[in-house]
Write a structure and sequence with these properties.
- The chain is about 55% helix and about 15% strand.
- It has about 400 residues and is an alpha+beta fold.
- The strands form two sheets. It has a six-stranded mixed beta barrel. Strands 2-10-1-11 form a four-stranded antiparallel sheet.
- A hairpin with an 8-residue loop joins strand 7 and strand 8.
- Helix 1 runs antiparallel to helix 9 and helix 11 runs antiparallel to helix 12.
- The protein is elongated.
- The relative contact order is 0.17.
- The N terminus and C terminus are likely disordered.
């Protein structure tokens, strides 16, 4: 049997103590890495959501009521429908379209003028009533809008957006033609429409997607969504009158309406919920980090009680003692901040790239998160350090 070796036992105890100390240090770093990442993430998501909500979609989406599923009778006599609806108090403008922004897309294949047959272009398509452009506040950048007075516009005219002009490389798009398959039963199976105007780019989908080339025609048979702009002074009454009129005009279809701006708000509801959830987790992570840091700093101060007592007897100042006890933990938090910055930058940059239109990562958010973490750790550790630094050194020297 080997003899008892006290030196070996002391070395083993010291090794275990060092491993435990390292484990506690790793725990502090991990907790504050998570906290700083959550702080940066919360600030960035808040800024992106605010950017989305304040972004100008190039059309007026407020005060716009949309009713889907117009009847065939409404389409064929839309002029009289428009006149009846405008008599309702609170209704300011009326129009219609085959779809509305953020409610799906229809794509078709076209052959733009000057392109060989093997280079047909796929474009988003939209059929509108002439009042669609002014109702949404869209601008005609070149040429003209559709005209209800020109019966030829239905079969011959088209609008395109600015992105289409750029993609096709046209310096003067007015008068350019598009050929397309008009479907079975049409004469020759191919139709041609001439560009009479260029409308400014506007978002048909969320800001995650770039604006794509758009072809707009004026075919009444394709209109499905009734679009009404209202005055919000007495909105409930206006909606009730609108409901009654809708039942008269389209009795087989229920009055299922929605506000255009709400469809965009719902698009980002997930981000808003995630942002709130991240804020809750951020507060929780900071609290847990502070509790852990306080416990570890208390343990460290307790282990160094005699050392601190000796230092005070030999003339160490209170500020010196506070600095001594705080320095190690501030270094750990600084390491955590640097690690968190790298992880947050990589992750948030990837997340923002999922949006075609997004904010730039701000170093201000990183600095705020870093300074907040350092300030919180300084207060947490500093409180314990001050308590130890102001204690009676005689009691410290007697401490076992």
């Amino acid at each position: 049997m080997s003899a008892f070796n006290p030196i070996r036992v002391m070395k083993q105890d010291a090794g275990i103590g060092n491993r435990r100390a390292q484990l506690r240090q790793i725990l502090v770093i991990f907790q504050f890495v998570i906290a700083v990442i959550l702080i940066i993430g919360s600030l960035t998501m808040y800024r992106q959501i605010r950017y989305i909500q304040s972004h100008k979609f190039s059309f007026e989406k407020e005060r716009v009521v949309v009713l889907p599923s117009m009847s065939g009778a409404m389409r064929s006599s839309f002029t009289s429908v428009e006149e009846e609806l405008k008599r309702i108090p609170g209704v300011t403008e009326v129009s219609a379209a085959s779809m509305v922004p953020n409610r799906g897309l229809t794509k078709s294949v076209f052959l733009p003028e000057g392109f060989p047959e093997d280079q047909a272009q796929t474009m988003n398509t939209l059929s509108v009533h002439p009042g669609f452009i002014p109702l949404l506040g869209l601008k005609i950048m070149a040429g003209r809008n559709f005209s209800a007075d020109l019966v030829t516009d239905k079969d011959q005219a088209a609008l395109i957006n600015e992105t289409a002009v750029k993609q096709f490389g046209w310096t003067n798009p007015i008068g350019k033609t598009f050929s397309f398959d008009s479907g079975p039963g049409a004469s020759g199976g191919t139709s041609t429409k001439t560009v009479v105007g260029v409308v400014q780019d506007f978002h048909l989908t969320s800001l995650r997607n770039k604006v794509e080339p758009l072809f707009i025609d004026c075919v009444p048979e394709n209109l499905d969504y009734l679009i009404v702009k209202v005055d919000t002074k007495d909105l409930p009454q206006t909606l009730e009158l609108l409901k009654a009129k809708w039942k008269d005009l389209n009795p087989r279809q229920g009055f299922d309406y929605f506000f255009l701006d709400e469809t965009f708000d719902r698009e980002y509801l997930t981000e808003m919920r995630l942002s709130k959830l991240m804020l809750d987790f951020t507060i929780l992570a900071i609290f847990i980090g502070c509790m852990g840091l306080y416990a570890i700093s208390t343990f460290a101060a307790t282990r160094r009680t005699k050392e601190i007592g000796v230092r005070k007897v030999l003339g160490a100042t209170k500020s010196g003692i506070v600095t001594l006890l705080s320095r190690e933990f501030l270094l750990l938090v600084t390491i955590a901040v640097l690690v968190a910055w790298l992880i947050a930058y990589y992750g948030l940059d990837k997340w923002l790239q999922s949006y075609a239109y997004h904010i730039n990562l701000s170093w201000g958010s990183f600095l705020i998160a870093g300074l907040l973490a350092l300030m919180i750790s300084l207060i947490t550790v500093g409180f314990q350090a001050i308590r130890v630094a102001t204690a009676n050194p005689v009691k410290a020297l007697r401490y076992e």
